[in-house]
Queue: 2 jobs
Job 1
Amino acid sequence: MRRVARSLALTLLLALSTCTGKPIDAGDVALTVFLNDDATATQRDAVQQRLRSMPSVEGVALETRDQVYERSKVDFKDQPDLLANLKPEYAPELVHATVTDSLIAEAIELVMAEVDGVDGVSFRIADADPRPSRIGVIVRLKSSATSEQRAAIQAAVRGLPHATSVGFEDRDAAYERLRQRCRGKGDLSTQLKPPMPHESWRFAHPLNGKGSGVSHLMKLDGVDGVNLVPVEML
């Protein structure tokens, strides 16, 4: 039950804004690191220090379990059904940051996911005003996805009427793309390893209310996650 409820908490909290004191640009990426329930103080500090050492990362801030829970109650006060199973002890500790170079945000996310004490990492386009007219969508596949699930995902993506620049990227192509983007970015390219990237469908989509169908992709069997990102990340 704890795992189920906590998974619900993670789903809810992915929508929360990043904690930063700097102005947000349309191309910035909000990064959120979910700490393990049993993460030690040493691991918690090490995660924050590791993030601060990454290129183009700003605004690193820890959000405690109590802070996350209290903020969730306010942000989702009009959605009682979603909050029904969210208890204080289920709320995770989070570390927020902003990546100002979207081209390397995915590499940073993959590297941080391997750090001790980290339960998972999410990234999305940062809130900005004005909002961009188009966004990128990354649909990651589970390594265990069957051929039938892969076919269903492909059909769903290609069936989106407003999607453009639709393409599939396997692990090798993803690693090579990210490795090239990390050149000249300190030792980030050496921290990135070939097994880290995911297979994914990637496409551009309007951000003007024509989003029907995109959220449905998250519910498909074989989908590991859907990220909404700046178009240039594609």
Job 2
Amino acid sequence: MFAAALMLPAACGHVDYEAVERGTFSGSVYVMWIDDGSPDKGDGRFLFVPVPGQELTYTRAAKHGGQVIRPAMMYTDGGSIPKIGQVFKGFSPWGYAPAYMVHDWIFVAHHCVEDGKATEAEKVVETIDFPGSASLLAETIKTLTLSGKVKKDDVAPRVISSAVAGPISKGLWEKEGACPVPRVSPEDEARAKAALPGGSAKMLRGMVRTLPDGQKVPEKPAQVVAVVSF
């Protein structure tokens, strides 16, 4: 969500990384590459796909009332890390994947609440404002680090947290008419489900669904590029 802000110090805000409290992650993260570009570099289209029974869930600390955040299927760009920054330790677009998925979901939910198109799941996080979204990312990254899911890094978490608090990210937050309808196209949803454990191209062939434009659901499943389980 924060794109080139990582390379522009003046475009950063401030988040007190030391002050945020860790929460708890549970479930699994499945990120799938739909098409175009390179899956390892964060190019092209990607989907975050909740696995039934293993849905990614982030439970916040008591300070935030134990708020439970459970992202639904959505398009994502991972960490939106510019290619020039991906060579540095800690700045892979998928390095903090669970944290990025929660942060992306907050943006999707916020846009849909503002546009009057929010689902019940999206309304759950409508109390989170823009500064809160940046603090939440810092919080989730700290949770991943303290739980041993990622290696400790003295620079990346602080830089990333401040980047998402800056004006570039705020501009995205304030964008009007940004709620995607549908959230995910039927074609991409079908390809993603075929790539889940137990899914297959054969399953896709068995689907008798026709897309709105009259095209058949393609047989090629999406490609899983990131999996994290708690």
